[in-house]
Amino acid sequence: MNTCVVGLGKIGLPLAVQIAGRGHRVVGADSNPEVVDLVNAGREPFPGEAELAERLAAVVDAGLLTATTDTASAVSDSRTVIIVVPLVVGDDLTPDFTALDAATSAVAPALKPGTLVSYETTLPVHTTRRRFAPMLAAGSGLQVGGDLFVCHSPERVFSGRIFADLRRYPKLVGGLEAAGARRAVEFYASVLEFDGRDDLPRPNGVWDLGSAEAAELAKLAETTYRNVNIAFANELAMAADQVGVDVRAVIEASNSQPFSHIHQPGIAVGGHCIPVYPHFLLQGYPRAHLVRAGLDVNAGMPAYAVALLDDLLGGLDGKRVAVLGAAYRGGVKETAFSGVFPTVAALHGAGALVTVHDPLYSDDELRGMGFEPFHLGEACDGAIVQADHEEYRKLTPGDLREVVGIVDGRGIVDPSRWTGVPVRRIGAGS
């Protein structure tokens, strides 16, 4: 029997390739015909994922992976169905289940008795049991725990290094009942390989957490922890600026003690995960004051970076400012919740003439986001490094002609190349 992966995006497609690479027959279902055609041709539909191009071509050539827009046909011949459709959020940061509900509704009527359905999308606690399991049961006529098995197994990977992360981190599963959990453990153990990890409390592999709710909460806990940790680093950075010390030296010293780990500060926290999933946790537990405070601190960092540049330039009204990086993270062509948007808005609010550069985006793509493009080698009065692209580690005065001051929001610019031009890192002191 086949495995069906519903959603061939930046998480789903590498997962489908991983499963096929272990000798399983995989059918990927996606609503985008262009993605389906590219996958069937053995060509990656998005850039930047290590190993994907070679692995995808290999499993397609071997006949182990095909793609279709017909979700029902893909599901009907599958013993395991994995749903990796994004859960987007609205302007108020509440979940919009439209796409996941549609995927669940498309899957349900085609399910056969004995099928395992695994949700890998990060979800608020209770969503698997209270929202999706009833939809699957009603649409299929099958009984959850009898002839239909449902689990939650959250993805725990970063774009750009998904195959490495699949090996490095334990695969968490939580079934709605014991039989479903056993099926999920058996399936994932057959399609994943794991690195040896002496630092874990038990052997690296597939871990049954005992319930779907435990698996849902575990994923929210790890992303929320990172958000709060980054917020603490950002507050340390602002404190360091006040007292005139370099926060990186402080963090390095603090991290030398066992069990300590403080992230490096940054201009913003972007992407689909870290700034979003804490809101899922707050939905079920609104009294999590520390979580809310961390979100507020991180959301304020773009404005803080703009204030630092204002200080360097003696005001921003009428000044030419280049924002370097539209992506939320270096090397990843993705702008979800990127710091570029609040940074540009704050600069406009201060009267600056703002342009944006990103090596991953064309001028037309930048204009499509509402930005005026900047090209390295052009003149500007000031610059803010928003994304940690490798290209920005090599910046020289020739790339930012006439620049008077730089705010390095990612700590990657080499100040030794900028004689006479102040480069202000967040948390580097005054």
Write up what this structure looks like:
- It is built from 15 helices and 15 strands.
- It has helices at about 10-20, 35-40, 50-60, 70-75, 100-105, 125-140, 160-170, 180-190, 210-245, 245-255, 275-285, 290-300, 300-315, 340-350, 365-370, and strands at about 1-5, 25-30, 65-70, 80-85, 90, 95, 115-120, 150, 170-175, 205-210, 320-325, 355, 380-385, 405-410, 425.
- Strand 9 (about 170-175), helix 8 and strand 10 (about 205-210) form a beta-alpha-beta unit.
- Helix 5 runs parallel beside helix 6, helix 9 crosses helix 12 (about 290-300) and helix 13 crosses helix 14.
- It starts with a strand and ends in a 5-residue tail after the last strand.
- The model has no long low-confidence stretch (mean pLDDT about 95).
Short characterization:
The protein has 430 residues and is of the alpha/beta class. The protein has helices at 12-21, 33-40, 52-61, 71-76, 98-107, 127-140, 162-168, 178-191, 212-243, 247-255, 277-284, 289-299, 301-313, 340-349, 363-368, and strands spanning 2-6, 26-29, 65-68, 78-83, 88-89, 95-96, 115-119, 148-152, 171-175, 206-208, 320-324, 353-357, 382-385, 405-408, 423-425.
Topology diagram in text:
Layout: E1 2-6, H1 12-21, E2 26-29, H2 33-40, H3 52-61, E3 65-68, H4 71-76, E4 78-83, E5 88-89, E6 95-96, H5 98-107, E7 115-119, H6 127-140, E8 148-152, H7 162-168, E9 171-175, H8 178-191, E10 206-208, H9 212-243, H10 247-255, H11 277-284, H12 289-299, H13 301-313, E11 320-324, H14 340-349, E12 353-357, H15 363-368, E13 382-385, E14 405-408, E15 423-425
Parallel strand pairs: 1-2, 1-4, 2-3, 4-7, 7-8, 9-10, 11-12, 11-13, 13-14, 14-15
Antiparallel strand pairs: 5-6, 8-9
Helix pairs in contact: 1-3, 5-6, 9-11, 9-12, 13-14
